[in-house]
Write a structure and sequence with these properties.
Blueprint (H helix, E strand, L loop, with lengths): L2 H17 L7 H38 L4 H26 L1
Helix pairs in contact: 1-2, 1-3, 2-3
Amino acid sequence: MAGILGIYGLIISLLIYQKINRDSYTFFEGYKHLASGLCCGLSSLGAGLAIGIVGDAGVRANAQQEAVFVGMILILIFAEALGLYGMIIAIVISQ
């Protein structure tokens, strides 16, 4: 599940790369692209941390009681959504 977070960063980097023009690249555009990259990167970092913590605790809880499996998957999906929200905001900032 955490592998898609790297793809989010790749998508944002390609969107930013297409916007760069060497002749008319202003400081405003540079800081806007920096902010969008940081937004996507830090939200993916937080999502990856949440996925790691929930995954570790979920595997340990699943070994003791199998009824927590569905709840664990739902929490992992919500943690993954943090990275998706960061990518959406990064797209909005970079435009």
